């Protein structure tokens, strides 16, 4: 015999969430992302000989998954406010953290060149994506800045040691900035239509 609580959970996860649930989900996810971001900032470098409490790369991956979930929830909010039909992000995707490959994090969930989408829907998706990409870009920029080891001229001072591969994060940052520029151009083209 099945537990009635499990049936309720299944029903809740498959049904479309209401606006209040989506807003709460975004708030909770943003709070988690903010917390992880602060830990990342503090963990980018440690003094020589210290063991870092967290691995920045692992925290970064958690952050990327959270911002993907935030983007999905925000798109659901926009679609529930504006659009009469369904969306590509399901409640289970947001809650369970099921995500695309992190390299394609900000690539389109839908085809923006699709003729069936109206300009308002496309613009809404582009603006949500731009907001999340800019937050991600800001994090990468800060990781890079905070990871440079201090160069002290004093021999007796303990040196700071970077905990991340700065070149790798800089490469991610540059690629993301290019995506943001492309996205801004798409937004401009839609504005001029």
UniProtKB/TrEMBL annotation:
<dbReference type="InterPro" id="IPR047741">
    <property type="entry name" value="DIP1984-like"/>
</dbReference>
<feature type="coiled-coil region">
    <location>
        <begin position="166"/>
        <end position="193"/>
    </location>
</feature>
<dbReference type="Pfam" id="PF20935">
    <property type="entry name" value="DUF6847"/>
</dbReference>
<keyword id="KW-0175">Coiled coil</keyword>
<protein>
    <submittedName>
        <fullName>Uncharacterized protein</fullName>
    </submittedName>
</protein>
